[in-house]
Automatic annotation (TrEMBL):
<dbReference type="InterPro" id="IPR005807">
    <property type="entry name" value="SecE_bac"/>
</dbReference>
<dbReference type="GO" id="GO:0065002">
    <property type="term" value="P:intracellular protein transmembrane transport"/>
</dbReference>
<keyword id="KW-0472">Membrane</keyword>
<keyword id="KW-0811">Translocation</keyword>
<keyword id="KW-0813">Transport</keyword>
<comment type="subunit">
    <text>Component of the Sec protein translocase complex. Heterotrimer consisting of SecY, SecE and SecG subunits. The heterotrimers can form oligomers, although 1 heterotrimer is thought to be able to translocate proteins. Interacts with the ribosome. Interacts with SecDF, and other proteins may be involved. Interacts with SecA.</text>
</comment>
<dbReference type="GO" id="GO:0008320">
    <property type="term" value="F:protein transmembrane transporter activity"/>
</dbReference>
<dbReference type="InterPro" id="IPR038379">
    <property type="entry name" value="SecE_sf"/>
</dbReference>
<keyword id="KW-0653">Protein transport</keyword>
<dbReference type="GO" id="GO:0006605">
    <property type="term" value="P:protein targeting"/>
</dbReference>
<dbReference type="GO" id="GO:0009306">
    <property type="term" value="P:protein secretion"/>
</dbReference>
<comment type="function">
    <text>Essential subunit of the Sec protein translocation channel SecYEG. Clamps together the 2 halves of SecY. May contact the channel plug during translocation.</text>
</comment>
<dbReference type="Pfam" id="PF00584">
    <property type="entry name" value="SecE"/>
</dbReference>
<dbReference type="GO" id="GO:0043952">
    <property type="term" value="P:protein transport by the Sec complex"/>
</dbReference>
<dbReference type="InterPro" id="IPR001901">
    <property type="entry name" value="Translocase_SecE/Sec61-g"/>
</dbReference>
<keyword id="KW-0812">Transmembrane</keyword>
<keyword id="KW-1003">Cell membrane</keyword>
Amino acid sequence: MAEQTPKETKATKSKTSPGEFIRQVRSETSKVVWPSREETVRTAIFVFILVLILSLFFLGVDSLFGAVVRWLLTLL
């Protein structure tokens, strides 16, 4: 079994010129489906509500654990 050298295992890559790179970026960017203003606002409101709900949940969990720890410390 002959072992391959690292040079043989790598695929050969040709360098891309800066102009070609810019053309490729523009081509790929034109394929992106951008959300409408309404979708963006709706998503932002949903994220805000979800963050508010989760922050209240974690505040409750933290307060509960804090109360339990304080109670346990009074037993000592």
